[in-house]
Each structure stands twice: as structure tokens, then as C-alpha cells.
Amino acid sequence: MDVTLPDAVVDGTGGRIVLLVLDGLGGLPDAETGLTELEAAATPNLDRLARTAALGLHQPVEPGIAPGSGPGHLALFGYDPIRYNIGRGVLSALGVGFDLRHGDVAVRLNFATLDGEGKVRDRRAGRPPDEENRRLVEKLRQGVQPRGGVEIFFEPEKEHRAVLVLRGEDLVPHVTDTDPQETGLEPLRVQARSTEARHAAEVLQSVLDGARKVLSDEPKANALLARGIDAYHHYPSFEERFELRALAIARYPMYRGVARLVGMDTCAIADSDAGSVAALAEHYAEYDFHFVHFKAMDSRGEDGDYAGKVKAIEAVDALIPEVEKLEPDVIVVTGDHSTPARLRSHSWHPVPILIASPWARPAADAAFGERACMRGELGVFPAKHIMTLALAHAGRLAKFGA
Amino acid sequence: MDVTLPDAVVDGTGGRIVLLVLDGLGGLPDAETGLTELEAAATPNLDRLARTAALGLHQPVEPGIAPGSGPGHLALFGYDPIRYNIGRGVLSALGVGFDLRHGDVAVRLNFATLDGEGKVRDRRAGRPPDEENRRLVEKLRQGVQPRGGVEIFFEPEKEHRAVLVLRGEDLVPHVTDTDPQETGLEPLRVQARSTEARHAAEVLQSVLDGARKVLSDEPKANALLARGIDAYHHYPSFEERFELRALAIARYPMYRGVARLVGMDTCAIADSDAGSVAALAEHYAEYDFHFVHFKAMDSRGEDGDYAGKVKAIEAVDALIPEVEKLEPDVIVVTGDHSTPARLRSHSWHPVPILIASPWARPAADAAFGERACMRGELGVFPAKHIMTLALAHAGRLAKFGA
Prior knowledge:
The structure is a homodimer. The radius of gyration of chain A is 22 Å and the shape is globular. In chain A, helix 4 (88-95) packs across helix 8 (253-261). Chain A has helices at residues 37-40, 44-50, 69-76, 88-95, 130-143, 198-214, 238-242, 253-261, 273-283, 296-302, 306-317, 320-325, 370-374, 386-393, and strands spanning 17-22, 53-59, 105-114, 120-122, 151-156, 161-167, 223-231, 246-249, 265-266, 289-294, 330-334, 351-356, 380-382. Chain A contains 14 helices and 13 strands. Chain A has an 8-stranded mixed sheet, sandwiched between helices. In chain A, strands 3, 4, 5, 6 and 7 form a 5-stranded antiparallel sheet that branches. The longest helix of chain A is centred in the middle third of the chain and has 17 residues, at 198-214. By secondary structure, the first copy, chain A, is α/β, with parallel strands linked by helices. Chain A folds into 2 domains: 7-84 and 236-393, Alkaline Phosphatase, subunit A (3-Layer(aba) Sandwich); 91-231, Alpha-Beta Plaits. Chain A binds chain B through residues 28-29, 34, 36, 57, 61-72, 81-82, 85-88, 91, 228, 230, 340, 342-343, 345-350, 370-371, 374-375, 379-380, and chain B through 1, 3, 5-6, 9, 358-364, 375-379, 381, 385, 387-393, 397-402.
């Protein structure tokens, strides 16, 4: 018998779950104090929750593997991040609200500046403002002709970023990026990585060539660089797998995209993290599951700003009582990966997690931090089990087997 | 997308890694003191390293499974020890430097003494000296005729051990050993374990019969016993998988063999463990990855010599400062399996591991021992992830996914 857990034991009733994702939460000890960002932060509310919670550390992908935001969130949502690995183009297209269909190929675009010799001078075309981005996208829509029986769609994202979607028969997305990742080099040609992908490679290259003609009179944004090329396939949804009506409250397109990939609804974008928590309160009764995303920890970590990351964590801590007022049956607090300020990048280090519910085995002296979580009941475990644990704590799983 | 981690995210640049394998390191508590061999040993250098390291316990194969040296080392090297399980004959052939080709069948041989009735009197033929071993092998080379279109090669190993390689078409190595493992019994006949293996079984049996004729006038080594029969297949190498130029510094053929199986270079055999560390210093700049093997812990454990195993660990501890002088980016210290003196054999117990790098989350009161490692950040984890962790700590992995 083929059994997929926890789907097989979901019973469709039970409590409400709130998942708070502090992006890039995990850190590394400061050389002087020996404390990580989370350990150093004053988090009275999270520490109080920790004393009623199951604690542990989760491994987003595998030991030693630093995940991108896509795999990090898919794992949190209970989707094996290796099996369900997906290109960033698809997440971007979903993030801007494009209605992807099965088989569509989505591509992340950068507007870029090429010099007179056709070499990349600026990979971001001087970061054009969003309205300039929309004007450039409209120009591409008017000027670039579809090729080889394939429909093409351009969508604006933010600043220098846009999305291209190719829709047609037999588009196999095993093709290479064109972004050389450095200035002073020409954009790369699209290469098929398998025989079946030749058609997609030719179509994409001809669209990029067409775009270059259309943009040739632009002073800055005179070319496109393409990356994160992948096809969209239907994912089994949160509703199908877990019988959860789920809402994503996220302020960045990327995280809205990955939530939509698994069938979550999204709501209007709040203008602050406090606004996100207000949206949670507003929509609380309509959904069984709420995912709320907080970005600042990751940004400060990538800046190498230890103190800034500490403050970002403290700012989320201050919002916790507003969440508690809603009396969720289960509150999960964790990150999608670690972003230690000392490393200035996503890292492989396991991520602290607390699952607050009446069904934990807490320690009286618990706190929310890397070392305290090491001693927790959950140990170090793969992130793909987090949803199963949350469903169990919410009383949403039946017994497995007779 | 087909993803094999960590291979898919290796980026080919980064720091140097030194892997120190203390064979059979893990142990069990002494009945009186309650301390394992490693906990009882005075290891000031390893304890100091532990306070800057990620600690944990690795499971070489699966919980409850005691590994042989082959699987134990393959797991340490990042190769799934079940998928990449291999017969000892292949490791012995590689260990003596034989240039195995894809499809060659390798067999471990013991020179043995049969009595007048053809029963085994001594499974090791009185442990002949190495020069006697070489004379016997030369006699076999001259006297034993190839059969059935199959080329045969005899190679000396040490004392009573030699290697036989069969090279020909359609040699399927699913055949039984001939070593009865006890004295007073006749050598077993080679049996095919599948229809396809009948040819290999007949060839091997006829070679062993031929050898018995050739050796019939020998007073002690008058027969061969065959075991560890397996075919050689190309393994994806360390260079291919991890983009690491790797050197194995090991004094015993078995460990040199398993290192060669994954494409490591080997250097001249040192005459002491201090000599191995001197070889590490000599070749340090030429390689990205160094594997240094220390044998004595395992030997004393198999002897049931608790105190001897403690001393063997202390002797390696004394060499640690010489390794640190090289300033490797990552130092990994562990064993390939446990060999508790009380059990006198390889065991299934998870093995202490430390990964010293600037990117650990160490505990101020850490030490290197089974119980201290249980509280470490790595938890209990499968050994096949050790290489991924080492690569991550050395800055040699890119982010997985967008």
C-alpha cells in the first residue's frame, strides 16, 4: 500500500494553526558574547511561549545544505523540498499574481544595461523605479512578437525585475540562464540541457533577441537577462492534502508566490509587520491555517548587521501578544533557514522552532534560542515534518493503522 | 529536476578539509567508572577543539547496524553505504595498488594449511612472513593456468593474505565463499547464487583447484580460501562529486583501497601515526581534502583491551597540535564505527564526531566524548551527511534552490 503521511490520516476537523515565519531566523554566536542573534534578543513573549511549547531545531533540506527561500518555505509547508524543487521564475510569476497554467514556462527577467560592445555594464539597469519598470514591460508587450506558435506574457515585478511566461506545446524547461552574474561579460546564449529542451531554448532565445531590438533605444534598460527558468506543474494543495483553508499574509512577492503554489489564498499587502498581524486578526475566523511572513531578520543577516537582526527579532516578539489574543490552538514560530549575520548569507544551520500547544512536553527553564532548542523534545529533525506536528497538535490527525 | 545532494550545489572553491578517522572510536561505559574509552582518555587537544566545534553522533549505516570497515568509510566519504556496498575483495585489490578495470572480479585469499584428510588445520597457514607470501604468489602466477577464457592475476598482500582478480566476459560475482571460518572442516565449494553466476563459480573453483595442485608440495600454505568476492564498478569520484583533490594517508591496505575506490590519491606508507601526520604536513598544500587514518583504537577494542584503547586515543590526541599548525579551514574528527572493548567487535553504536570550524554553535563546557556529543548541535544523524557538513563549513556549497 502506498501511504503518504500525514495526508492519509488527515481528518478535516480540529483547531486553528498560526505559522509565524521569521525569515532567516537562525544565527551563529557572536565572538565576544557567545550568543546568537536570537539568544541575545530580548524576547519575553517568545520565551514565555517556549515554556509551554515543544522545542527543537529543523533541518530545511538536509544537513549541510543552505536552502533558498523556495525550498525553505516548501519544507515548512510540508512539501519535500528536493522532490518539489522549483525554479524561481515560477515563484515570481505566482508572486505577481499571474494565472499560471500547467506546463507554462516562467522566467525571471532582469532589465540590464549593455555597453557599446554588448557587454553587461549594469545587471540591474540602475534599478529603475516601479513605474519605469511598468513602462518598459508595456513596451515589450507591444513590440516583441510571439515565435514558434508560443504565446508570450511579460509581467512587471519591482525595480529591475520582471517575469516572462511562455505558453505552448512541448516546452521543456531544461535550459540554461543567460545572466552572466558579472559585469564586463556578454549575456550568455540560452542552451538546451537535453534534446527535448531544444525547442524551448530556441523560443526563449528569439524572445530575448526580439526584446533587445525593442529596447535598443533605451538609455539604461537596453537588454534582458533571464534566469530561474522552470515549468509550472500543479502541486497538491493545502486543501487537498491537509483539509486546511489557508491564508498567506506576506508582504513580498516571492513568499506570496510559494504560498500560492500550494494553494493558499493571499490578502492585500500590509504596509508593515504590525499591519500583517492586523490582517491576521481581520481574517482569523475565515481560515484554519494562517502563514504570516516577517522578512527583516533575513535582510539584516544578509547585511551582516548583527545588532539590526537582534532588533528585528525583538520587533516581532513585541507583536506576539496580538497573535495570542486570537487564541490559536497551535502557534508555530520558526524560520525558513538560518541567515547568520557573521556569514551574511543563507546557511545550512538548523533553525529554532517552537510549537506552542497544550500538548507539549516543555521544560520549565526553556527559552527560545538555538541552544535551548537543542535540548528540546523535537531534537534536530527534517522541516518537512513540521506540518505533521502542527496538525497533530491541532487535533487534526487520526490514528495511523488499526 | 533530478537532484543529488550535495553534488548539485558544489561550487568548486573554498577551504581545506582534514578528516581524521580514529578507527573504532566509539565505545561503551566501563562497569566501574561509567566512562567510555573516549570519555576516560585524557584528550586536552580534542576537548579544546570540541569547544569550537559542531558536535554530534553519526550513524554509519542505520540504527542497530554494525558496519564493516568498507561501509563505515564509504559513509564517512559521503557514499550511501547500502547503495554503494562492496565486497572486501575489491577493496583489497585496490589497497595493494592493483589497477582494477570495470567488471573485474576480485577475491580475498587466505593461504591455509589442510591436513591429510583435506580439512583446514590453520586458516592462516601459520601467518607466513611477507617475503614467503611473495614467493607463494609467484609460484601461483607461474603454475596456475587461466581457465575458460578468463585472465587471472595473483597479488600478495600481507602475511597469509593475497588477492585474486578474474578478468573476462560475463563474470557475475554472485558466488559463495570457500572459507569454512573454522578449523576441522573442508574448504567449501564455490556455489553460484544465481543462474547468471554459474560461469564465475566454475572459473573460480577451477582456479582454486589449480592452486591446490600447485601448492600441494608446500608444508604449510598448501591451499587457498576465498572470500569477499565481488566485481569492481566505477564509483563517481571525490573529484567528480565534490570537486576536491583528495589524498588518503593510511597505513593499511584496506583503507587505502576504499579511498582509491572513490578516487583519492595515496602517498607512501608511513611507519607510524606520527609519520602519517608528517605526510599530511608534507602534502598539505597539494590537496583540498586529506583523509588520515589511525588504526590502533579498533585493534585494542577488538582485543577487549579497554586501557589499551584509552592509550591509543590519547596517542592520537597528542598529534592534534601538529594538524592544527596547518590551519585547516575544517577539521573533522570521528571514527568509522564503534568498537567497544567490552564487545570486542565492531558495534552499531553511533560514533562521536566533531567538526571544528568558525561556523559552529559550540557549547562553552563541551568536551569530546559520547555523552557530550549527544548534547551537540548535530544530534544523531546518518554518516552519509558528514561530507555535506564538511563542505558547508569549508564554504564549498552554493545555496540549494531559488
